[in-house]
Specification:
The complex is a heterodimer.
Chain A: H1 3-39, E1 66-69, E2 76-79, E3 83-85, E4 88-97, E5 100-108, H2 114-134, H3 146-162
Antiparallel strand pairs in A: 1-2, 2-4, 3-4, 4-5
Helix pairs in contact in A: 2-3
Chain B: H1 2-5, H2 8-13, H3 28-60, H4 70-95, H5 100-141, H6 145-155, H7 159-176, H8 178-183, H9 186-209, H10 219-250, E1 252-261, E2 264-271, E3 284-289, E4 299-302, E5 316-323, H11 327-332, E6 340-347, E7 359-365, H12 369-378, E8 386-392, H13 401-411, E9 414-419, H14 432-436, H15 441-444, E10 451-456, H16 459-471, E11 479-482
Parallel strand pairs in B: 7-8, 7-10, 8-9, 10-11
Antiparallel strand pairs in B: 1-2, 1-6, 2-5, 3-4, 3-6
Helix pairs in contact in B: 3-4, 3-5, 3-10, 4-5, 4-10, 5-6, 5-7, 7-9
The chains are: A alpha+beta, B alpha/beta.
Chain lengths: 165, 486
């Protein structure tokens, strides 16, 4: 390649990379925002797009299950452990009323890559209905979402243990 | 001058100039060469930008957010390496697809040279992809890279295929290393090379299911789909359909085999629609003679004469001249008239399409003389503006020497026979006594710096010629060299 063409290519490359980075930075921010709102547990089964926020420190999959009773009736919610997977952190909250599992809310789902966010959003509702039906964490994992399912059920089991369910 | 009367724009629409005698439009070749070099630059830029675009689209889909942590950074680096690696693999396939736009711009030789030079970088990038992703995923889960790889293999669907793909890529690149390739017959290398398709095929599932490349709603999905499908179509069209179509279109049949010297023979063929191959003199085809024990081997040979189109009464004619070099070409000498021939081609830039100046110099040795013979027949030049140097140990090695002499007389070409034992040292391409007497390239050709130089012969000899040609001030775009050591 002649020098002028090489220079033009280099400049074009820099421009294209910069443009990609610019539009990507925007997506990464909204992704982080969505994850935060999920953590505050106002939404259920939500998905977050873009980059993962919590793939870092390999915290162990045990401990830290915190049961918080909400009081007024016999309904109580319990948070499961945060389970680290290669696709992001998974944590669920379980609601128990009159000795039955009435709701499972994902606090965090795998979202490290867009594809994993997509997988989570598909797997979470299915897992939820299976758990509600079986009334335990002892249900089948979802094909094609093995990692997410395993983490989901592990976190759920920890929550159930904390609830002495 | 003709150029003043005929501006460049009208030169394009003019019918092809008659082959001999008439002066070509001045500057026609300069324009042609400028355009060809511009096309080559454009292709080079597209190649680079395809890799850049792959990374940019990944960034646009939020890829950079991973860089906030160690695990995320490792994973992101792994993904970038994988993206560029995959892009290089697809570029390599495109370079080997014999696409006419590529062949016309840089030539088949150069395309394969680039193809080869990309092999190792692509493999290293794919290895880095596996390593960094294993480290990144492992760090996120608190596993070491090895346990992470094992867990990926066992637990994640499609990942075992990705490991198989990696092994296949390693096999393909290792068997293509020069040192390894020499130890095995061509056919072994060829079969292993076919595994490339399996390697790409087994790599794609994990890009769908584990990686985000084809995730719905991303730009990357469309980019990679287009790239993969485009590459597949190019291969199917140019390497499968076009050769079949050409073989059926021309219906080539061996008409006779003529011995030129004890180990050199011409194979003459008849066929239809040969006017469509006009101008192919000097370019090469891959020939497959459809006889028992022969059909599975294809041989690259250049035409040794311009194709003669047929008419209602007689079929068109085509000729190649072959030296008995290997086992395969030895069998060709015994090929029977009536044998059907399948072809792929024409390929290469050893033709008028590569011209950049009005003057021509042709330098050939051994069997490399024969493509020059067909180029000499048609490429336009004015009488007195072409020089031919042919080299042989003795007269009997100047294959088709009589025909070349006749063409030179008819078209006003200066012809030199360079005969005698080879010399050593700086001008090894010249006969010993000539070199010792102090003669050089300048003794034969005046003003070579402003001429197109076509070189064809065994590669050590050609390397020596090219050195002298470059020393004489001939720029790269005027130097056209056909390799003859396949």
């Amino acid at each position: 390649m002649r020098i002028r063409a090489a220079l033009a290519t280099a400049v074009a490359s820099a421009g294209i990379l910069l443009a990609g980075w610019q539009s990507g930075a925007h997506i990464a921010e909204t992704g982080a925002a969505t994850t935060t709102s999920l953590s505050s547990s106002t939404k259920s089964g939500g998905t977050s797009s873009g980059g993962g926020t919590n793939t870092g420190s390999p915290s162990s999959g045990t401990g830290s299950s915190s049961g918080t009773s909400t009081g007024s009736t016999t309904a109580a919610t319990f948070d499961g452990t945060q389970v680290q997977t290669r696709f992001g952190t998974v944590q669920v909250r379980v609601t128990i009323q009159d000795g039955k599992i009435t709701e499972v809310t994902p606090l965090q789902l795998t979202d490290a890559e867009r594809k994993s966010a997509q997988i989570s959003s598909r797997a979470a509702p299915v897992l939820r209905s299976e758990v509600l039906q079986a009334q335990s964490a002892n249900v089948q994992t979802i094909g094609g979402a093995t990692v997410t399912s395993d983490a989901y059920l592990t976190s759920l089991q920890a929550a159930l243990d904390a609830a002495n369910f | 001058m003709t150029s003043l009367l005929n501006p460049d724009t009208s030169a394009d629409s003019m019918p092809a100039p008659p082959p001999a005698g008439r002066p070509p439009a001045v500057d026609r070749f300069r324009t042609q060469s400028r355009r060809r070099l511009a096309r080559a630059d454009l292709l080079g830029a597209v190649g680079w930008l395809s890799g850049v675009a792959a990374v940019a689209l990944w960034l646009a889909d939020g890829g950079a957010s991973g860089f906030s942590s160690f695990a995320g950074t490792m994973t992101a680096l792994g993904i970038v390496a994988g993206l560029i690696g995959m892009d290089l693999v697809l570029l390599m396939l495109l370079l080997a697809a014999r696409i006419p736009v590529v062949d016309n711009a840089i030539g088949h030789d150069r395309a394969l040279e680039i193809h080869k030079s990309l092999g190792k970088p692509a493999l290293y990038l794919l290895l880095a992809h596996g390593l960094f992703v294993a480290i990144g995923y492992g760090a996120a889960e608190g596993l070491d890279p090895l346990s992470e790889s094992i867990s990926l293999w066992i637990n994640v669907p499609d990942m075992w295929l990705a490991f198989v793909s990696m092994a296949l890529f390693i096999a393909v690149v290792v068997t293509s290393l020069v040192a390894v390739r020499r130890k095995f017959p061509y056919e072994f290398w060829y079969v292993v090379h076919l595994l490339t398709y399996a390697a790409v095929g087994t790599a794609i599932p994990h890009q769908f299911s584990v990686g985000g490349l084809f995730a719905e709603g991303t730009w990357q999905r469309w980019y990679w789909l287009a790239l993969c499908i485009g590459t597949g179509l190019a291969l199917a069209w140019f390497r499968v359909y076009q050769p079949l179509a050409a073989s059926f279109r021309h219906q080539l049949t061996v008409s006779r085999v003529v011995r030129v010297s004890p180990d050199v023979f011409s194979i003459e063929m008849t066929g239809r629609n040969l006017e469509r191959l006009s101008g192919a003199g000097g370019r090469f085809f891959l020939w497959r003679f459809l006889a028992p024990g022969q059909w599975w081997q294809s041989h690259p040979f250049s035409l040794s004469a311009e194709p003669v189109p047929g008419d209602r009464n007689r079929p068109g004619k085509l000729r190649i001249t072959v030296r008995n070099l290997g086992e395969g070409s030895a069998r060709l000498a015994r090929i029977r008239p009536g044998t059907k021939v399948a072809i792929e081609g024409p390929y290469g830039l050893f033709s008028t399409a590569a011209r950049s100046r009005d003057d021509v110099v042709m330098i050939g040795a051994g069997i490399g003389i024969t493509p020059l013979r067909s180029l000499l027949e048609t490429t336009p030049f004015e009488p007195g503006h072409a020089t031919v140097l042919i080299r042989g140990h003795d007269e009997s090695e100047l294959f088709l020497g009589q025909e070349i002499m006749a063409l030179c007389q008819a078209r006003g070409v200066t012809l030199f026979h360079l005969l005698g034992p080879r010399s050593h040292g700086d001008h090894a391409w010249l006969p010993r006594d000539v070199a010792q007497a102090g003669f050089g390239l300048h003794s034969y050709v005046q003003g070579i710096a402003d001429a197109d130089v076509y070189v064809c012969g065994p590669s050590p000899w050609a390397a020596s010629v090219i050195r002298d040609v470059e020393l004489a001030g001939v720029p790269a775009e005027q130097l056209h060299y056909e390799r003859f050591d396949w």
